[in-house]
Amino acid sequence: MIDFFEVIRRALNGPYMSERDFDMKVVVPKLRQVVKKYDIRFDPDRAVANDDKLADDVFQAALELCVETGAYCTDTSRVIRFSREELLEGLRDAPAAPVFGEGRDRKAMLGRKPESALPPWCYVGAGGATCSSEDVYIRLVEGYGRNPLTDSVTCPTLTKINGMEVVAAAGNTVGECLNHLIKQFPGMEKAIFSKKDKLLNIVEVYVNHASAYPNELAHPVKDGDEIHLVLMLAGG
User: Fold this and answer.
1) pLDDT in tens, 58-110
2) Interior CA angle at 157 toward 151 and 159, to 5°?
3) Measured between alpha carbons, how far is 219 from 211 in angstroms, rounded to an integer?
4) Cα separation values, 219 from 173, 185, 192, 212, Å
5) Which domains are assigned to the chain?
């Protein structure tokens, strides 16, 4: 199976295309084509379909769609291509029951077929919404957690913490995130870097409250990670 770094390489070297062109000129025409080819139709009288043939047709249509269109990387404006064999291998090796939570909250997300007697996974929250009050944020999340049906929670996004605005940055490493941040706030560059790609000696970097030393700029990050910059100052 291809590894994560191969996906990154394809995201950097794949065919260049605008997001609008990818959506309107690649995905939409191909989607219409596979829907017609596999005769996929929605029956409004059956909210949850349990037709095995329909399930097989949807799977084959989705597989063909993914092979023909690829996936779009909004950060690089390039299309990531996957072969049919790579997609099937990834599906085969994907976790059958990923586990979320710890202790008594630990739960496994099991795949459900339409006729399954297992209750559906209940994923609650305000994903994508913003919240300007920390007090409201805490009350919301606690309320989601107290719901006896809740299996997992998605949290809203805080616009401010202790009165300070939260700033988002994109990148796969600390260095990439800082460069993205500097493009938004150019004045920060002199406060962080002594020269290009070299941090000031007084700057300490923490990712999710853990030190990123050494090689701070190359330290990998993922969506949701928090980067903290601490200035080590002393005086007499």
Assistant:
1) 999 999 999 999 999 988 899 999 999 999 999 999 888 888 888 888 889 88
2) 160
3) 10
4) 5, 22, 16, 6
5) 4-93 (no CATH), 121-166 (no CATH), 167-231 (3.10.20.30)
Give 233's DSSP letter.
-
pTM of the model: 0.56
The 10 Å CB-count burial string (b at 16+, else e) for 189-225 is eeebbeeeeebeeebebbbeeeebeeebbebebeeee
Q: Which residues pair with 152 in a beta bridge?
A: 123
Is the previous residue joined to 214 through a cis bond, with omega within 30 degrees of 0? yes
Q: What is the CA radius of gyration of the chain?
A: 23
DSSP 22: I
CB 51 within 8 A of CB 42: no
Task: Judge whether 67 and 87 are in contact, CB under 8 Å.
Answer: yes
Tokens representing 151? Answer: 């299996």
